[in-house]
Amino acid sequence: MSEAVGLAEEAEDFVDETGLDFSPIAVLFQDSSGGVPDGEDAAEYHEAISEPDFPVMADVDQAVLDATPYTGQSLPGKCSLSPDMELLACSTGHGNETILDAIREHAGL
Which of 24, 41, 71, 85: disulfide with 37, CB 3.0–4.6 Å? Predict the structure, then answer.
């Protein structure tokens, strides 16, 4: 199972557990060869990860690397944002506890 599909299932459990309105989003900062992604890359990735209910977007300006502490050096990279788009936490690798814990803490849970 891909990490993104696991996140979709984990997101459902998180919403059930906390009652918070939470949704993942995938943002591609590069294509499969390390170049700048486009909409076709996003559509192909969405299909490759079993078409989850969350959007997959292509960061054609590669702005996510400048807007977050994530450097792109280790995959996957993940960040959590508040409803006001405040950056709560970022992490890399498998597992989502760091970003989910940051959401819980921000919500006072």
Answer: 41
The answer to whether the beta carbons of residues 25 and 17 sit under 8 Å apart is no
Q: What is the pLDDT of residue 4?
A: 55
**Model-wide pTM > 0.85:** no
CB within 8 Å of 63: residues ≥ 6 apart: none
Is residue 100 a contact partner of residue 86, using CB atoms and an 8 Å limit? Answer: no
The full set of domain ranges for the chain reads: 3-107
End-to-end CA distance of the chain: 29
The residues, any chain, with a CB within 8 Å of residue 69's CB and separated by 6 or more, are 87, 90
Q: pLDDT value at position 2?
A: 52
H helices of 1-109, where? 3-18, 39-48, 64-67, 97-107
Confidence of residue 72 (pLDDT cuts 50, 70, 90): confident
